[in-house]
Amino acid sequence: MLMGGRRRLCLAAALVLVVVCASATSGDAGVTSAYRRKAEATVDMPMDADVFRVPAGYNAPQQVHITLGDQMGTAMIVSWVTPNELGNNTVMYGTSPEKMEMRAVGTHTRYDYFNYTSGFIHHCTLKNLKHSTKYYYAMGFGHTVRTFWFTTPPKPGPDVPFKFGLIGDLGQTFDSNSTLSHYEENDCGAVLFVGDLSYADNYPLHDNNRWDTWARFTERSAAYQPWIWTAGNHELDYAPEIGEEKPFKPFTHRYPTPYRAAGSTEPFWYSVKIGSAHIVVLASYSAYGKYTPQWTWLHDELATRVDRTQTPWLIILMHSPWYNSNGYHYMEGETMRVSSSSGSSTPRSTSCSRDTNADAPVYVTIGDGGNIEGIADNFTEPQPGYSAFREASFGHATLDIKNGTHAYYAWHRNHDGAKVVADGVWLTNRHNMPTDDA
Ligand SMILES: *[C@@H]1O[C@H](CO)[C@@H](O)[C@H](O)[C@H]1NC(C)=O
Ligand SMILES: *[C@@H]1O[C@H](CO)[C@@H](O)[C@H](O)[C@H]1NC(C)=O
Ligand SMILES: *[C@@H]1O[C@H](CO)[C@@H](O)[C@H](O)[C@H]1NC(C)=O
Ligand SMILES: *[C@@H]1O[C@H](CO)[C@@H](O)[C@H](O)[C@H]1NC(C)=O
Ligand SMILES: *[C@@H]1O[C@H](CO)[C@@H](O)[C@H](O)[C@H]1NC(C)=O
């Protein structure tokens, strides 16, 4: 459904594409829950759903997922869980399934959460990979061996094409499953995930078995292409009432990020380069005021490490818009504020500035992978002039960077075939096309 009656796609210049995943803050929890009852119901898939099935075989590796292991795309972190015993930490890999002759030895971790104890969580970094190369990899030696594959991203450069998926607020409902299925029909090389993974915290005691089911569910994509993780509020798992006072405990044990390679001090903010894009991941739930470690890192990142001549596309991922923050100096003087909703759980709006200011970034809010909190369709009326398109539906987006000047952003609605694009817009890059004010 198209809310607001007006559909205005503007071809604003993309200096920076900011992707946020707006979500409910504690302050409007009441509004959200009242709203949830009214909205189209969306329920979690049951524990015995096919997508949660434990792979066959004693101690079989499960919940396999990969993410970039360095900034340049020549390393990949492979993560998996063994349920019964530690097992072998080794990943064997190579460019053909018959010749996985290279080896990397990982580390493992476990954690307790109230009365839950995780399986053996393995992380293993494969290094010195070649760009744009298909690798096969296997783990579980000694008991049950499973084999997967991925293609490394191309060498970063000013005109390198790359197609990204954009997913947020995925959860593990039936809608989440269709979002993932539709996403898989696109030929994307990586997912930019803007936070809120499993929604395990919606369960009593934050039932961490729901972190396990989520990782088994997403394995069918996340084992085969890197997912770039952003922490959302549903990753906090802060529950002092049950003695869980360390924020992000399940998330940090399960989902490593290449933050050290990016000069960061915490896993929640970091950057990677893929193709012609420099991707900065920011942490909405870590301190970001002036002179905090995150602020300092971002300041240095933008001042010294972002090189628009090499990576003209600058993509900022964050979970929650910092509307009330003026702590970040790159936001200072930004004349555009794009948002679609009244502050409750915002599903998504694709919004472009109609501001003629050439420095205005394109701002995309996406956050409707299928989470159980339901669809937020309570948009402000009338639709504000700055809002180009908004729709309350579940789905995902793709960002198809063609070269240093052109990228196509598309929104794919569930209940359509994945090939049906509900919203699409060409973005042009101001860095390379400073005079284009289409
Ligand atoms: C999830 O989607 C997959 C692929 O479309 C399908 O095979 C599976 O049966 C679905 N599972 C559920 C529980 O909807
Ligand atoms: C954890 O505690 C809850 C509530 O008392 C209980 O239902 C559940 O079975 C317990 N789980 C384990 C693994 O002991
Ligand atoms: C783990 O598996 C690898 C690959 O098969 C093997 O070379 C290595 O010896 C195994 N390690 C142990 C401790 O069994
Ligand atoms: C929609 O949002 C407005 C403004 O925040 C609020 O007053 C109204 O109650 C909301 N409606 C529903 C159905 O949630
Ligand atoms: C960049 O891609 C756009 C869209 O595909 C195309 O029209 C344009 O010619 C390309 N530019 C160059 C320099 O190839």
UniProtKB/TrEMBL annotation:
One of its GO terms (molecular function) is metal ion binding. Its EC number is 3.1.3.2. It is an enzyme of class 3 (hydrolase). InterPro entries: Calcineurin-like_PHP, Metallo-depent_PP-like, MPP_PAP, PAPs-like, PAPs_C, PAPs_N, Purple_acid_Pase-like_N. Residues 1-24 form the signal peptide. Residues 61-152 form the Purple acid phosphatase N-terminal domain. Transmembrane segments: none annotated. Pfam families: Metallophos, Metallophos_C, Pur_ac_phosph_N. Keywords: Glycoprotein, Hydrolase, Iron, Metal-binding, Signal, Zinc. PANTHER family: ACID PHOSPHATASE RELATED, PURPLE ACID PHOSPHATASE. This is Purple acid phosphatase. It comes from Eleusine coracana subsp. coracana. The gene is ga11735.
